[in-house]
Specification:
Elements (H helix, E strand, L loop, with lengths): L7 H7 L3 E6 L12 H17 L2 E2 L22 H17 L4 E6 L5 H15 L2 E6 H4 L1 H8 L8 H10 L14 E2 L14 E2 L10 H28 L9
Parallel strand pairs: 1-2, 1-3, 3-4, 5-6
Helix pairs in contact: 2-7, 3-4, 6-8, 7-8
Length: 243
Amino acid sequence: MKLIEMNTHEFAKAEPRLCFWPVGTIEAHDQGPLGTDAIAPEKLATDLAEEFNALILPTLPYGLVSSLSGYPGGMWVDEDTYKDLVFELLASLAVSGVESVIIFNGHGGNTQALSEILPEVWKETGLKTAFIDWWTVGSKLSEEHFGSAAGHGGADELALVYAANPSLVPKTWDGSRAFLYRPGVKAYPSPRSAIRYSEEQAKPFTPEKAAAYYEELKKKISEAIKDILAGWQAFNQPGKKEA
Protein backbone atom coordinates (compact mmCIF):
# COMPACT_ATOMS: atom_id res chain seq x y z
CA MET A 1 0.00 0.00 0.00
CA LYS A 2 1.09 3.57 -0.67
CA LEU A 3 0.72 6.17 2.05
CA ILE A 4 0.00 8.87 -0.52
CA GLU A 5 -3.12 6.98 -1.68
CA MET A 6 -4.56 6.32 1.81
CA ASN A 7 -6.83 8.52 3.87
CA THR A 8 -6.03 9.18 7.51
CA HIS A 9 -8.64 6.70 8.75
CA GLU A 10 -7.23 3.91 6.60
CA PHE A 11 -3.74 4.70 7.86
CA ALA A 12 -4.85 4.59 11.50
CA LYS A 13 -6.71 1.33 10.98
CA ALA A 14 -3.76 -0.29 9.22
CA GLU A 15 -1.44 0.63 12.12
CA PRO A 16 1.67 0.40 9.93
CA ARG A 17 4.77 -0.67 11.82
CA LEU A 18 7.20 -0.89 8.91
CA CYS A 19 7.61 1.56 6.03
CA PHE A 20 9.77 1.50 2.91
CA TRP A 21 11.03 4.90 1.75
CA PRO A 22 12.65 5.39 -1.68
CA VAL A 23 15.04 8.37 -1.87
CA GLY A 24 17.26 9.61 -4.67
CA THR A 25 18.15 12.76 -6.55
CA ILE A 26 17.67 14.38 -9.95
CA GLU A 27 20.84 14.47 -12.04
CA ALA A 28 22.25 13.60 -15.45
CA HIS A 29 22.64 9.93 -16.36
CA ASP A 30 23.62 10.37 -20.03
CA GLN A 31 21.02 8.36 -21.99
CA GLY A 32 19.17 7.30 -18.85
CA PRO A 33 16.47 9.52 -17.31
CA LEU A 34 17.36 12.38 -14.98
CA GLY A 35 15.23 10.65 -12.35
CA THR A 36 17.11 7.32 -12.50
CA ASP A 37 18.16 7.63 -8.85
CA ALA A 38 14.53 8.01 -7.79
CA ILE A 39 12.96 5.54 -10.23
CA ALA A 40 15.31 2.68 -9.31
CA PRO A 41 14.74 2.63 -5.51
CA GLU A 42 11.02 3.24 -5.96
CA LYS A 43 10.76 0.15 -8.17
CA LEU A 44 12.67 -1.99 -5.66
CA ALA A 45 10.63 -0.74 -2.69
CA THR A 46 7.36 -1.29 -4.53
CA ASP A 47 8.23 -4.81 -5.61
CA LEU A 48 9.42 -5.89 -2.16
CA ALA A 49 6.78 -4.17 -0.01
CA GLU A 50 4.18 -6.94 -0.16
CA GLU A 51 6.67 -9.57 1.00
CA PHE A 52 7.28 -7.58 4.19
CA ASN A 53 3.83 -6.06 4.64
CA ALA A 54 5.46 -2.65 4.40
CA LEU A 55 3.79 0.67 3.66
CA ILE A 56 5.45 2.61 0.83
CA LEU A 57 6.20 6.24 1.61
CA PRO A 58 6.21 8.93 -1.10
CA THR A 59 9.54 8.96 -2.91
CA LEU A 60 11.92 11.77 -1.98
CA PRO A 61 13.41 12.61 -5.39
CA TYR A 62 15.66 15.45 -4.26
CA GLY A 63 19.08 14.84 -2.78
CA LEU A 64 22.70 15.94 -3.03
CA VAL A 65 24.52 16.54 -6.31
CA SER A 66 28.20 17.46 -6.74
CA SER A 67 30.23 16.57 -9.84
CA LEU A 68 27.16 16.33 -12.07
CA SER A 69 25.65 19.64 -11.02
CA GLY A 70 26.91 21.24 -14.24
CA TYR A 71 24.63 19.19 -16.48
CA PRO A 72 21.19 20.44 -17.59
CA GLY A 73 18.12 19.27 -15.70
CA GLY A 74 19.69 18.56 -12.31
CA MET A 75 17.85 19.55 -9.12
CA TRP A 76 19.33 19.36 -5.65
CA VAL A 77 19.41 20.70 -2.11
CA ASP A 78 22.35 21.42 0.18
CA GLU A 79 23.49 18.97 2.83
CA ASP A 80 22.00 20.75 5.84
CA THR A 81 18.64 21.08 4.10
CA TYR A 82 18.73 17.40 3.16
CA LYS A 83 19.54 16.25 6.67
CA ASP A 84 16.85 18.46 8.17
CA LEU A 85 14.30 17.20 5.68
CA VAL A 86 15.08 13.55 6.30
CA PHE A 87 15.06 14.03 10.09
CA GLU A 88 11.81 15.97 10.19
CA LEU A 89 9.92 13.67 7.84
CA LEU A 90 10.98 10.58 9.79
CA ALA A 91 10.19 12.26 13.12
CA SER A 92 6.69 13.03 11.89
CA LEU A 93 6.15 9.34 11.11
CA ALA A 94 7.21 8.41 14.63
CA VAL A 95 4.35 10.56 15.93
CA SER A 96 1.97 8.43 13.82
CA GLY A 97 3.15 5.25 15.50
CA VAL A 98 5.45 3.92 12.79
CA GLU A 99 8.16 1.80 14.43
CA SER A 100 10.72 1.32 11.65
CA VAL A 101 11.63 2.64 8.22
CA ILE A 102 13.93 1.06 5.66
CA ILE A 103 15.26 3.58 3.17
CA PHE A 104 15.97 2.46 -0.37
CA ASN A 105 18.68 4.90 -1.42
CA GLY A 106 19.25 5.43 -5.13
CA HIS A 107 22.11 7.93 -5.01
CA GLY A 108 25.64 7.57 -3.67
CA GLY A 109 25.83 11.27 -2.91
CA ASN A 110 23.21 10.78 -0.20
CA THR A 111 25.04 8.00 1.60
CA GLN A 112 27.20 9.99 3.99
CA ALA A 113 24.38 12.34 4.97
CA LEU A 114 22.07 9.41 5.70
CA SER A 115 24.80 7.74 7.76
CA GLU A 116 25.06 10.87 9.87
CA ILE A 117 21.40 11.77 10.36
CA LEU A 118 19.75 8.37 10.89
CA PRO A 119 21.47 7.70 14.25
CA GLU A 120 20.06 11.05 15.40
CA VAL A 121 16.57 9.97 14.33
CA TRP A 122 16.89 6.87 16.50
CA LYS A 123 18.26 8.74 19.52
CA GLU A 124 15.70 11.54 19.34
CA THR A 125 12.54 9.65 18.32
CA GLY A 126 13.09 5.93 18.94
CA LEU A 127 12.30 5.22 15.29
CA LYS A 128 14.41 2.35 13.95
CA THR A 129 15.90 3.05 10.53
CA ALA A 130 18.16 1.40 8.00
CA PHE A 131 19.19 2.35 4.51
CA ILE A 132 20.20 0.23 1.56
CA ASP A 133 22.51 1.40 -1.23
CA TRP A 134 21.19 -1.07 -3.78
CA TRP A 135 24.15 -0.79 -6.22
CA THR A 136 26.58 -1.72 -3.44
CA VAL A 137 24.51 -4.73 -2.39
CA GLY A 138 24.47 -5.80 -6.03
CA SER A 139 28.07 -4.93 -6.94
CA LYS A 140 29.22 -8.50 -7.55
CA LEU A 141 26.07 -9.27 -9.50
CA SER A 142 26.67 -6.17 -11.58
CA GLU A 143 30.21 -7.28 -12.42
CA GLU A 144 28.94 -10.71 -13.41
CA HIS A 145 26.14 -9.46 -15.62
CA PHE A 146 27.56 -6.23 -17.07
CA GLY A 147 31.30 -5.93 -16.42
CA SER A 148 32.50 -2.39 -17.16
CA ALA A 149 29.18 -1.50 -18.80
CA ALA A 150 27.91 -0.94 -15.25
CA GLY A 151 28.30 2.30 -13.31
CA HIS A 152 26.67 5.70 -13.11
CA GLY A 153 24.20 5.85 -15.97
CA GLY A 154 25.39 2.32 -16.77
CA ALA A 155 23.82 -1.03 -17.38
CA ASP A 156 22.99 -1.81 -13.74
CA GLU A 157 21.10 1.45 -13.25
CA LEU A 158 19.44 1.09 -16.62
CA ALA A 159 18.33 -2.40 -15.63
CA LEU A 160 16.30 -1.06 -12.72
CA VAL A 161 14.77 1.71 -14.81
CA TYR A 162 13.99 -0.90 -17.46
CA ALA A 163 12.16 -2.95 -14.85
CA ALA A 164 10.04 0.11 -14.02
CA ASN A 165 9.51 1.44 -17.55
CA PRO A 166 11.30 -0.07 -20.57
CA SER A 167 10.51 2.95 -22.73
CA LEU A 168 12.84 5.16 -20.66
CA VAL A 169 16.13 3.40 -21.48
CA PRO A 170 18.14 2.62 -24.63
CA LYS A 171 17.82 -0.89 -26.01
CA THR A 172 21.55 -1.53 -25.60
CA TRP A 173 24.39 -0.04 -23.55
CA ASP A 174 28.04 -1.06 -23.68
CA GLY A 175 29.67 1.57 -21.47
CA SER A 176 31.61 3.13 -24.35
CA ARG A 177 30.09 6.58 -23.70
CA ALA A 178 31.14 6.54 -20.04
CA PHE A 179 34.05 8.37 -18.39
CA LEU A 180 36.45 6.04 -16.56
CA TYR A 181 36.72 6.88 -12.87
CA ARG A 182 40.33 6.75 -11.65
CA PRO A 183 41.19 6.74 -7.93
CA GLY A 184 42.87 9.98 -6.97
CA VAL A 185 41.45 11.92 -9.92
CA LYS A 186 38.58 14.38 -9.38
CA ALA A 187 36.91 16.70 -11.89
CA TYR A 188 34.09 19.22 -11.40
CA PRO A 189 31.93 18.91 -13.38
CA SER A 190 32.42 15.31 -14.37
CA PRO A 191 33.79 15.10 -17.95
CA ARG A 192 30.81 12.95 -18.89
CA SER A 193 27.46 12.22 -17.28
CA ALA A 194 27.97 8.45 -17.45
CA ILE A 195 30.77 7.01 -15.34
CA ARG A 196 32.28 3.54 -15.27
CA TYR A 197 34.37 2.25 -12.39
CA SER A 198 36.14 -0.69 -13.99
CA GLU A 199 38.38 -1.35 -16.98
CA GLU A 200 37.32 -4.97 -17.31
CA GLN A 201 35.52 -6.19 -20.41
CA ALA A 202 32.07 -4.72 -20.94
CA LYS A 203 29.06 -7.02 -21.06
CA PRO A 204 26.47 -4.87 -22.82
CA PHE A 205 23.03 -4.21 -21.43
CA THR A 206 20.23 -6.22 -23.00
CA PRO A 207 16.64 -6.69 -21.79
CA GLU A 208 17.39 -10.31 -20.95
CA LYS A 209 20.44 -9.49 -18.83
CA ALA A 210 18.56 -6.62 -17.20
CA ALA A 211 15.73 -8.90 -16.12
CA ALA A 212 18.09 -11.56 -14.75
CA TYR A 213 20.14 -9.00 -12.82
CA TYR A 214 17.07 -7.38 -11.33
CA GLU A 215 15.62 -10.66 -10.06
CA GLU A 216 18.90 -11.64 -8.41
CA LEU A 217 19.28 -8.17 -6.90
CA LYS A 218 15.82 -8.32 -5.37
CA LYS A 219 16.68 -11.61 -3.69
CA LYS A 220 19.88 -10.20 -2.16
CA ILE A 221 18.09 -7.12 -0.86
CA SER A 222 15.25 -9.24 0.51
CA GLU A 223 17.78 -11.32 2.44
CA ALA A 224 19.37 -8.19 3.90
CA ILE A 225 16.00 -6.84 5.01
CA LYS A 226 15.09 -10.14 6.65
CA ASP A 227 18.31 -10.01 8.67
CA ILE A 228 17.63 -6.43 9.73
CA LEU A 229 14.07 -7.15 10.80
CA ALA A 230 15.06 -10.31 12.67
CA GLY A 231 17.61 -8.33 14.63
CA TRP A 232 15.14 -5.57 15.40
CA GLN A 233 12.59 -8.13 16.51
CA ALA A 234 15.05 -9.48 19.07
CA PHE A 235 16.28 -6.03 20.04
CA ASN A 236 16.04 -4.98 23.67
CA GLN A 237 16.51 -1.41 24.74
CA PRO A 238 19.06 -0.91 27.53
CA GLY A 239 17.55 -1.58 30.93
CA LYS A 240 14.72 -3.75 29.65
CA LYS A 241 14.55 -7.44 30.47
CA GLU A 242 14.38 -9.99 27.70
CA ALA A 243 10.93 -11.36 27.05
